Structure formats: structure tokens, C-alpha cells
Amino acid sequence: MDEPTDFYAFYNRVLRPEIARVEPLREQTVTTAWVIAILTVIGTVVWILVVGRLIGWDSSFVYYSYIIPAGIGLVAWDPVRRKYRDAYQLNLVTAIIQRYNPSFEYDRDDAVGEVALTDCGLFPRYLNGDDRHCRGTDRVSGKIGVTPFEFSDLDASIANGKTREQIFKGVFFVADFNKNFSGETFVTSRHAFFSAGPETPPGEVVTLEDPEFERMFATHSTSQIEARYILSPALMRRILYFAQQSRTPIAIAFSGTSMFIALFNRSTKLEPVLWQTLQKPGLFFGIWANLEFLCGIVNEMDLNTRIWTKGAPAAEQLPA
Question: Which of 39, 60, 69, 132 has the fewest other C-beta atoms within 10 Å?
């Protein structure tokens, strides 16, 4: 089902009846959100006035105690939010993913593991940082052809004094490359880390023969020979095309047996939409198009063509 007309047929046959059941809940959730917000604001003002009169306005507790009524508001909102999130994701998002590929698995509360973020080698500051925090949602996994993959939204940060420093926020994609790499090779958009500060991957700078690729990407590797073995002219053109399609800074690592792709400032778009009506086919076609883009990584990188095997020669055995 590749054509938009096929998606809209699926929308009319499957999604529209489900949307008719979920939309009233969305409207009710919006109303409840406004009620909770208004009552929380009123409750906070009343709380501060009462506490101030009782213990005196000089006490710092008066001003910090707003956390109590605000916390009550958040506690009241959480089950309302969860109820709508359940309906939206279990009835609508799951249906879209299953229609796209019945073999795919979707876990809205899971994410690509932190071990992938540390193993890829793209984020040494995170690996060496204090009080690391990595969380994510909306993990999609499965096989495209013979290539296992997984991706999810991911947000990683470390402690920086009394604040937190965001290292990565976006979509993190992992796929099998069917090759045991003896070294590590990294390809990063030259502005890939603008949202997290400059960070240079380990290894030596690799200068490649494609001028356009060199303008867009910086390449580092622990093995000059293996980097050139991996980054064939054909793969460099695929990465260039993929970067143009993604319209977002990207970073790619070839390490172990996997290819890791970090898509900065992008989302899987699988979280619930609350503040606009669900009666818009384009909203759900956007989810479909995003799946097409993310799953298309396997085809764009030609990962189903098993040009290497896990018994391929190590870099030191390759011809110079």
C-alpha cells in the first residue's frame, strides 16, 4: 500500500469509525484540561493568600508553597491524559502501524535502549557525563526484508552543575548492517550538533573523494581503510539523498554489527494530538508518511543488499 489513494481508502474504511469514537473523548479531555488549569490557578492564588495571612508574608514558604496546589492539579490531570493517550495510540496509531506492516511491533512506553546510545560512539559527552538521563517513547521494531531495525523518540541529557544539558533529542534509529566492523566510523552533518554544542566523534578525520559529501558531512574513523570500504561512492550518494529528504541534521555511526542514525530535532509523530480535531485525514497521513520516511532508511541505505557478511575481512586484511 504505497499510494496515497490506498491510504485514504484505509482511512475511510478503518480509521474514520475509530476516530468517531475517539474524537468525543478528545473534546472532553480538552474541556477537562481547561477546568483543571483554571481551578489550579484559582487554588494557587487562594492558597498563597491564606498561607500568607497565617504565617506572614516574610516567609519564603509562602512563595514556594505554590508547588502544592500545582502538584494537585498535575495529579488530577494525569489520569485524564492517560485515558486519552490510551484511546489515541491503542486504537489509531496501532492500526496505522499494523496496516503499514503487520509484522512490526509498537510499544508506546518503550524506547531504543540507552546501551545503543552509548555503544554508537556519537555522544562521548553523554558516555562520560554525570547523572546521565535517557528516556524515550514510541518504539517501533521489526524487519524490513532481512534487515532487523528499531527506532524511537529519544531524549538524552547529563548534569551540568545545577542544570541539565541536553545531548540529544530526536529520533534514534538502529539497523543491522550485516558486517562485523573492526573499527568505528562516524558521519555527521557539519552542523549536526548545533542544538547540543560542538562534539567531535573519536578517530581520525577521513577525507573522501566526493566533494558534495565532504561539504555536507564530516567523517571520522578509527580505521581509514575500513571507512573507505564502508563508504562506497554508492552509499555516499544514498546518505546525501537521505539527508536531503530528512531536512534535519543527522549523525551516522557504523560500529559493532550495526548502523546507528541520530535524527536531530525530529519526532516519530506517534504521540497524541490534543489541541486540534482528529477529523482531518492529513493528520494521520502525516503519521503514515513519517513511517514511510523512517522505514525507508533501510531501502535508501540499501541494507537489504547483503554485500557484506558478518564473516567479512577485518580492515587490516582489506586491500589498500
Answer: 60
